Give the backbone structure.
Amino acid sequence: MKRFLTTLLFFVALILIWALLTGDLLFMGIGPSEPVWNPYVLPPPSVVGQYLWDNILNFKILAAMWVTIKRLMIGYTIGLILGVPLGMLAARFRGVNDTLGVLALGLQALPSVCWVPLACIWFGQSEAALLFVVIMGTLWSVLLSTQNGMKNVPPIYARAARTMGSGHFHTLIFVTLPASAPFVVSGMKQGWAFAWRSLMAAEIYVAVVGGFGIGQYLHFGRELQRMYQVIGIMFIIILVGLLADKLIFSPVESWLHRRWGTNKE
């Protein structure tokens, strides 16, 4: 509760400073007589909040969020299906590590937005282009984390399993892979963050007809010079990222670290 209240007070203080600088508290006689920031450049919290409230009530933002989350889950799932087995192969075979592992290490450092022009040329202004960018944002991070996780498993686990009659494949699936699960989940969490950023970049530049996502609302706000829309959509993007981390990945990651005794506490 103490940590929650500290976090809550911190964000409330940030919003109050924002309201103070943009003249949102002048009706209470608080703050300078003129806004420090031009409301056109930095809209006050009340304007941003009103925009979000109106568009939530008319379901426009919710519909855009559904389109974006659907794209994210499809691309992210494909990235996981490809990344985990490839990471296992890279950890198991030196030749795969020296080829595919090095390629993954290089491509992970490539900003996700760099895939957008290539995706548009290959797939056009389509859903396939967006999914390709999300997959590229997920795949390499998951591959590397799976590879590193399996390499960090203590060798004594596999030796003990083989002593009790476990074969190589059985040891890999039922001993090594579960023991590396905390590291794999950490990679999945990182891959999700890369996928989320990749999709936002792709939706800003790829205008798919009939399926506007939350990133395209951000793009329209910039084009129409509606700073309240830009800031409001940014808040939604941040909120989705925080909820995914706090409600899904962090609890699973903490449980796995406790299960295998790899927590730092």
The chain has a mean pLDDT of 84. Residues 182 and 256 are 5 Å apart (CA to CA).
